[in-house]
Amino acid sequence: MLKVSHLERTYPAQPGGVAVQALKSVSLSVEQGDIFSLLGPSGCGKTTMLQCIAGLETPDAGRIVIGSQTVYSRDERTQVSASERGLGMVFQSYAIWPHMSVAENVAFPLLQRGRNPGREQIAQRVNDALAMVELAGYGNRSATQLSGGQQQRVALARALIHKPRLLLLDEPLSNLDAKLRDTMRTELRQLIKSIGITAVFVTHDQVEAMGISDKVALMCAGKVVQVGTSRDIYLNPHTAFAADFMGSSNLIPCVISDMGGERAIATTPFGQIRARAAAGLRSGDEAILVIRPNAPIVDARPANAQDDAAQVTGNVASVAFLGEKIEVQVRLPRGCNLVTMMNTFDAPAEGQEIRLTLPAERCIIVHRDNAAVSTAGDVKLAEVAA
Ligand SMILES: Nc1ncnc2c1ncn2[C@@H]1O[C@H](COP(=O)(O)OP(=O)(O)OP(=O)(O)O)[C@@H](O)[C@H]1O
């Protein structure tokens, strides 16, 4: 449905500033009917990407194809205008007009284009769009009489009124409070899926991306660094950045001391750990061992994993109460802290000795990159190598 190839966009330097390379040869493709998220930290290029797809920003190079239509190609000198791309957009601010009724807000794009389709047809299309977002019967209300979540649905109805082939959403939930955001995330996914439209969704919130998307493109500094389902990126990150941004992780510097078949051995400050390894790593490489907080099994040894699970012993440094779960920091040998999640009812005492089993299939060795190695204390890689 959408294919972006080698897209480049550099914002020219402002007086006294430097040029910003916002997109560096970005390629991705989105399947028909998928909700596809662009996820990454602030400034990584998500909005620039979305605006290039929308035709609101002109790339410097590359190609964008929507359906079978090339809407931008530098080589072919093609540039289809935003209004001719057949897209619907929902922005962070919703851009709902407070002085208009719900129906007038939704009808706005029909009247804007200067081809007024006639009262009856407008009313029919507004009613259809409102029904799609489950706001049938709300047309005569003032837009200000709606809750934040309902206003967001009005914005969605307005984006759908032209029956777009692709829906673009730029952080559409970020103005809602935390609890409503959770509800709306589920609701928005159900709505988009029931309409059957393909959607590209921009967010910097990994929980939001995981909850709403069929696929995620993880972006960092103008590049797409990994594409996959949320589950795939969570379970099989390629880099420390991907592990750190998608979920939370213990990132431990290590050296790969053996690589055989599906398992590798990571030499870490607290011993040798068997783990899976990301593609492209070799024996002798300096790398990062990723241990998700929910990976260790506390004070237990799985009966069927005797040879494939390392055991480490440490002391409880701190216990943080988070409701259903508690976060336990375990101080391991040579200054390493490992964060693990435990059931609230199993809370250990601070200072208590604790034994962790680390099954190999739950640990993964990934490529080093610039992600902060956050939980490994002050251990230096050189020490590990020694
Ligand atoms: N009009 C502009 N002129 C100059 N630089 C810009 C412009 N728009 C964006 N940038 C820069 O381009 C880079 C990418 O910005 P972009 O808005 O695409 O990132 P983002 O991932 O959407 O960030 P956020 O999540 O904060 O919205 C940033 O360094 C930003 O400062």
Automatic annotation (TrEMBL):
| Principal subcellular localisation of the protein | membrane
Indicate yes or no for the key word ATP-binding. yes
Molecular function (GO) terms listed? ABC-type transporter activity; ATP binding; ATP hydrolysis activity
Cell compartments where the protein resides: Cell inner membrane
Describe its membrane topology: Peripheral membrane protein
Q: Which UniProt keywords apply?
A: ATP-binding, Nucleotide-binding, Transport
Query: In this protein, which residues make up the domain named ABC transporter?
Result: 2-246
What is one cellular component GO term in this UniProt entry?
A: ATP-binding cassette (ABC) transporter complex
SUPFAM superfamilies in alphabetical order:
MOP-like (SSF50331), P-loop containing nucleoside triphosphate hydrolases (SSF52540)
Q: Does the keyword Transmembrane apply?
A: no
Record's family? Belongs to the ABC transporter superfamily.
Q: What is this protein called?
A: Iron(III) transport system ATP-binding protein
Q: Which species is listed as the source? A: Microvirga subterranea
Output the lineage of the source organism.
Answer: Bacteria, Pseudomonadati, Pseudomonadota, Alphaproteobacteria, Hyphomicrobiales
